[in-house]
Write a structure and sequence with these properties.
The protein is α+β, with helices and mostly antiparallel strands. The chain has 2 domains: 84 residues, Immunoglobulin-like (Sandwich); 424 residues, Glycosyltransferase. Strands 4, 6, 7, 10, 11 and 12 form a 6-stranded mixed β-sheet that branches. Strand 10 and strand 11 form a beta hairpin. Belongs to the glycosyl hydrolase 9 (cellulase E) family. This is Endoglucanase. InterPro entries: 6-hairpin_glycosidase_sf (IPR008928), 6hp_glycosidase-like_sf (IPR012341), Cellulase_Ig-like (IPR004197), Glyco_hydro_9 (IPR001701), Ig-like_fold (IPR013783), Ig_E-set (IPR014756). Keywords: Carbohydrate metabolism, Glycosidase, Hydrolase, Polysaccharide degradation, Signal. One of its GO terms (molecular function) is cellulase activity.
Length: 597
């Protein structure tokens, strides 16, 4: 071992000078340059780690408990990686499939431990889905057996939220019940935009592998009400749909968001943030995203709760009727509405309208939706990017590609556009030193989500055209998420030996409960994201892939959001088979700082 001991790294190494987070906590770390998926690798799939070049030519796997050598292999030739500015060698142990817990050794260096098995992602998959439950507003939560989170009734005042503006439907000061739903991120805002896309991500995950979702799977904490006839994950989505329905206005449009007028302090828990809450804005893009999620819901719930599915379809029809009558993109903003919440300012709604039309066609088969898609073919067949809250073209293409009885010519063109982009993603992965899908300009705010989204898109591509490279490319993004990156950092709270300890999360800071399964933003190389990140990037040369801070106040690198986490849920649920876990089996086995000191 290097220096005969493991290296101890400060969690805030190199950034303490910024002075925003107080004393750093210490955690025992692997030796430098040993980059592995800290959760593990699946049998029957590619298994590789990356190591920084030290002149060694071979590696070995050892049993994590006994130190017995179980596998030996040769390292690849060293190759420079532009994003991390490291020179890397690849340790490939794909042929080793014996389940167990291991470490990688190269010379006197040793990695974090990791598992090899048939179902290594089962625990983080459940934790990720549970994180939505623990983000619920408007309900008592007592998760005494797993995370310790206890909330009496987050933002009960949302039952009497006030409309912030006046238009033809509402007057300023009107009272509307918008209780329930999930908090969006580290703040307590609730946004139709991310509600729609996150709900859709979970529904599409279910649709891809319904057998991976079961009743009792999420071990709902005390205070959570649910329908015992539905798989737990669909109960969770239903809770969000119930909130979004309250955000729908009588003409089929939606309010854009609900939040307080000021950002709450980190000492404010969901039930102690008692400031008045307001309904802000109207946005056709977020309305269309709600409509798309409704269309998916109508399809998914149809065989499980026909009456509920019918209601979702009725609401989707109402949304479509509104959009059909209001063809111009609308993003209403009133002075002061961004003072305590994020904007999600999507001012071009064509991709979201296309997504809703494609989902409505896939669900109903009604040719009027295909007619809309044909009329907008030039937009529909454009090369997509990875889908996100302000551009859902890829989701529109996937929905239409999967539709039955579609126009053969148009569907062929759409499939080609989508699959060409999937091949582009796979090519990027093959050329990156860490097998990460991110190009340099994608290391921005929410870069981990950007990588995971591209992995999800490969899994969607696999449903159109089964190529093993798509599956392996998606797994490679999971490996990146779980620490096979230049920072040796898992970006999912609670997962792996070195996950985020100080996520930008008011629930954590105000209650002391560390919630696993939240995907944080990750490296952001674009200066100006937040004061800490900006100062860090200015303090010295920081490689693109290393521009991340595990500190509370770096919201541009260390905040989570429901649409981030939804991308992780999609990927993990694809590969994780359901297990009847007990609370002790998904409870974290190590302590985390309860609050940032």
């Amino acid at each position: 071992m290097q220096s005969k001991k493991r290296l101890c790294r400060m969690v805030l190494a190199g950034i303490a000078m910024l002075g925003t987070c107080g004393a750093a906590s210490l955690t025992e770390a692997a030796d430098a340059g040993m980059h592995v998926d800290q959760v593990g690798y699946l049998t029957g799939h590619e298994k590789a780690a990356m190591v920084t070049d030290s002149g060694e030519t071979s590696f070995k796997l050892v049993d994590a408990k006994t130190d017995k050598v179980v596998y030996k292999g040769s390292l690849s030739a060293a190759k420079a990686d532009a994003m991390s500015e490291e020179t890397l060698q690849r340790a490939d142990f794909t042929s080793f499939n014996t389940p167990g817990t291991y470490k990688l050794k190269v010379g006197n260096r040793e990695s974090y431990p990791f598992a090899i098995g048939d179902n290594v992602y089962a625990v983080p998959a459940v934790q990720t889905l549970r994180s939505f439950t623990l983000s619920r507003s408007g309900t008592p939560i007592n998760d005494k057996d797993i995370t310790g989170l206890k909330v009496k009734n987050g933002h009960a005042q949302d039952k009497q939220a006030k409309v912030y503006f006046t238009d033809k439907l509402n007057k300023k000061g009107d009272i509307v019940d918008v209780s329930g739903g999930w908090y969006d991120a580290g703040d307590y805002g609730k946004y139709t935009t991310t509600a729609g896309i996150a709900a859709a991500e979970l529904l599409l995950a279910y649709e891809a592998h319904p057998d991976h979702f079961t009743k009792g799977q999420l071990l709902f904490p005390e205070g959570i009400t649910y329908d015992k006839n539905l798989p737990d994950a669909l109960n969770e989505v239903k809770y969000e749909f119930d909130f979004m329905k309250k955000m729908m206005r009588k003409d089929g449009s939606t309010f854009h968001k609900v939040s307080g007028a000021q950002w709450p302090g980190f000492d404010k828990s969901p039930d102690s943030d008692t400031q008045e809450r307001f309904l802000y804005g109207n946005c056709t893009a977020s309305t269309a995203m709600y409509g798309a999620s409704l269309a998916i819901g109508a399809r998914v719930y149809r065989g499980l709760d026909a009456a509920y599915a019918k209601q979702l379809q009725k609401d989707a029809d109402k949304v479509w009727n509104y959009l059909s009558k209001n063809k111009k993109s609308l993003y209403r903003v009133d002075e002061g509405q961004e003072s305590g919440s994020g904007p999600y300012d999507d001012k071009n709604d064509i991709q979201e309208r296309l997504w809703m039309a494609a989902e409505m066609f896939r669900t109903t088969g009604d040719k009027k939706y295909e007619k809309y898609l044909r009329e907008n073919k030039a937009e529909l067949v454009k090369a997509p990017g990875f889908f996100t809250w302000d551009n859902t073209l890829a989701l529109a293409q996937f929905a239409y590609a999967m539709s039955k009885n579609a126009d053969a010519s148009l569907q062929s063109d759409v499939k080609k556009a989508y699959l060409d982009y999937a091949d582009f993603i796979a090519d990027k992965i093959s050329k990156d030193g860490f097998g990460c899908a991110l190009s340099k300009d994608e290391y921005t705010w929410a870069s981990t989500k950007n990588a995971m989204t591209q992995g999800d898109m490969l899994l969607m591509a696999y449903q159109i055209e089964p190529k093993q490279a798509y599956v392996e490319g998606a797994l490679s993004q999971i490996h990146y998420m779980f620490g096979r990156n230049s920072l040796d950092k898992s970006f999912l709270t609670g997962a792996g030996a070195n996950p985020p300890e100080h996520p930008h999360n008011r629930i954590h800071e105000s209650t002391g409960a560390y919630v696993p399964g939240l995907l944080v933003g990750g490296p952001n190389a674009v200066s100006g994201g937040d004061p800490d990140q900006t100062a860090y990037l200015a303090s010295k040369h920081v490689p693109t892939a290393k521009s991340y801070l595990d500190v509370l106040t770096s919201w541009s690198t260390n905040e989570y959001a429901i649409d981030y986490t939804g991308t992780a849920a999609y990927a993990l649920s694809w590969f994780a088979k359901p297990v009847e876990f007990t609370a002790s089996q998904i409870k974290l086995t190590r302590a985390f700082p309860s609050v940032t000191k």
